[in-house]
Each structure stands twice: as C-alpha cells, then as structure tokens.
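Subgroup meeting minutes
Present: P.N., E.W., G.H.
Scribe: E.W.

1. P.N. recapped why we're keeping a running log of single-chain structure predictions: easier to compare across weeks, and new members can see raw inputs and outputs side by side.
2. G.H. added today's entry (296 aa).
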Amino acid sequence: MTELTKKQRTMEFYSETSEDVLANLDSSAEGLSGSEAQKRLTDYGKNELAEGKKKSLFMKFAEQFKDFMILVLLAAAIISAVVSHEVVDSIIILLVVIINAIMGVFQEAKAEQAIEALKEMSTPNANVLRDGHTLSIKSDDLVPGDIVLLEAGDVVPADIRLLEAASLKIEEAALTGESVPVEKTITVLPAGDIGIGDRVNMAFSNSNVTYGRGKGVVVNTGMSTEVGKIADMLAQADETETPLKNNLNDLGKFLTMAIIAIAVIMFVVGTVFNGTSFVDMLLTSISLAVAGSRDS
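Output recorded in log:
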C-alpha cells in the first residue's frame, strides 16, 4: 500500500483545511500533471463501480435448491411418483418448488438491477484541471488528487473535498434520502463521526449539482466512494449471514428434522402395529412431511 493510499483511507477530509487536504493528496490547486494522473490511474484503477462476477441464470436457479427443506420436497415428489404412482401430487410439489426457485432468482436479480442503476447515474465526463489547463475527460479516468470543476446540471463524478463554492447546492437524495438540495460551503468541520448529510464541504459521487458552481479535489474514486460502499453492500447482500438469518435457518432445519422424524414414526406405527398397507402409510407420511415442510 502506498503512502498516498494510507493517507487517503485514514483522513477525515471534511475536518482538514483545503491546504492540508491538497498536501496529503500530493496535489495542488492547479491540478495534477498528465503523467502523474496516468500513474495514479494505474495505482488506483478506473473510477467505476465494480461489477463483480456475474452468475449465469442457470446457476442462480440451481442455487435455489440448496435449501434443506427444498430437498425434502423434491425427495417427497420422487417417492410419490415412483412408489405410489401419484403423478399429480408429484407435479404439484414440483410446481411449488419451481415457483419458489423463480421467486428467489427474481429477488437476486433486483439487487443486481440496483447496482446497475447506481452505475447508470454516473456522469460520462468531468471537467478537470490538468497541467493548469481545463480539460474534459471521461469520469472513469479521474484519480485522487484531480481538481474537478462543478456547475449546475453536473453529476458529481467522484467524492470531492470542496475548495471553492459559489452558491453551490447539491441534491444528495440517493445517499441521504433528503430531497432538498444541500447548500455547500468550504468551512472546515470538527473532527469526529459526522453523517454524510452534514458534511457540507464535501460533494459525493452520483449526487446532482442543482445550483451554483464549485471546485474541489477528488479524495475517493470507484468503490472507495460513499456510493461505492453502497454498491458493495448490495453485492454482498445475499452472502451476508446475520445472526437472525442464522437462527432462522437453524430453526427451519430443526423443524424439518422433527417433521421427518414424526412422519417416520407414523409410518412404522401404521405398518407394523396397525397393519395399514405399505403404500397407504407411505403416502400419508409423505403428505405429512410435505405439509410440515411447507408450513415451516
């Protein structure tokens, strides 16, 4: 990790003076040189949200069948069709399982669509100072230390510490939920954990400039921005195991095992002690297991 990267990650830019921010980012009010910008682009990578490894539709569908209760239902459908030739019951069970899998794929797709929506909000170009001259470059090529010029109608291309703000107002609803544009200043804020909505000397990636103009230095790009952190959380939503989710999974497994045990006991008692036919008791036990798995 480079020294600049360490500084970038540990600084509370809103609590530092403009001069200190520029010094810590090894930049200046005239912007970076072209060669330095290219070097940093190699070090930091593109200013874009990571897509991550996308699963095929088949893989998403197949993963829905990992749940233990789903496997119980599939086993019940197979036994019902093979042993008792109850094809209609098997088809109904399979339809329930398939519909459940389709719903799971749909929910996973919604999370991916949310990430795509965040990417589409980004602006394609940004006005920056390079070698003391104003240039329009692709926002993907922005790097920490770049000086960005903002005006009404722009989408903020990265997380920026403002150096100048002339009647500057930025709408940050995507990050804070506040529909009213925030009036920006260059006032140094006290150190500490200050909410995003209160960091009035910062402009955040994917927010919209609604009024005025401003100038600032890029402090974070890509997945290091505040919107990048949101995208990362969305991408990991299905992988995160919360204590509640773990407890519910454990409870579901316990209930399923208990239902299967009861079905087995009922099958043994019915066939051995009551003399009920093997097929009839098997169907009864399967019905109990399926009903219990559905309710649990």
